[in-house]
Amino acid sequence: MTKRSLFVSIATLAIVGAMAMVVRSARGVTPDSRQVTAPLTAHSYLYGAYENAGPKLGEGHDTTAIQSRHTQPQPLSVSEFAAKHACRADLVIAGRVVDSASALTAGGHFIFTDYEVSVDDVVKQNLDANLVTGDRIIITRPGGHIQVGSQHLQAFHEGFPLLEVGSSYLLFLHFLPDTRSYQSTDVEGTFALDGAHARHIANFPIAIDVAVDRRVFVTAVRNVAFAPCI
Predict the structure, then answer these.
(1) Residue 228 lies in a domain
(2) What is the C-alpha to C-alpha distance for residues 98 and 33, in angstroms, rounded to an integer?
């Protein structure tokens, strides 16, 4: 064997080994997921706040849940609410969920889900990663369910209900430059789009009506998209 062919063989083995390590590290990936699984391993390290010193999920318990603590918020107009949340978001879109994949967090105490979303409308543009209608992005959120061996494991966060494949949402998002993906970090930043209405999906009160006029709300966000935070 020549030195060149030996080098190629070693390099090939190294690449295959690295790929195998990535697959093994994404323990608990749903078996029906497709390309949406690509950034799962990196995203599993975003959820350190969900880890604890107790048993991992699946070691004595198969379900875990996080409840958000909320007081009755001071009412805001739709424009005020839009300004408050749009200024903190790197991207605001209306989009449809086309795929999802869930996995255990790096420490094994919680589950998160990566969603593939088709962009229907860019309401606030990400100046670091320009998007157009029809683009697909990955959005990571806490919560999900997976099958690990014979165990069905579940994790829920009251502020981030699971999204449904095929449904459309208005989403306020944080940019993750390392994976060119996005994260939902605002518990008041997810609205289901149902006909003429935008409906907040978390089960707690927010500063505006749970269901608002979709056109009015989207216009309000667009109008204040790049206004400074007050």
Answers:
(1) no
(2) 11
**How many structural domains compose the chain?**
1
Q: At which residue do the structure tokens 């206004």 appear?
A: 227
CA dihedral of residues 201, 203, 208, 212 (deg, nearest 10)? 40
Q: Is the pTM higher than 0.85?
A: no
Q: Is residue 230 part of a domain?
A: no
| Cα 177 off chain centre by | 14
Give the pLDDT of the chain (230 residues) as one tens digit per residue: 443 443 333 333 333 333 332 332 333 444 444 456 779 999 999 999 999 988 999 998 999 999 876 677 889 999 999 999 999 999 999 999 999 999 999 999 999 999 999 999 999 999 999 999 999 999 999 999 999 989 999 999 999 999 999 999 999 999 999 999 999 999 999 999 998 999 999 888 899 998 999 999 999 999 999 988 87
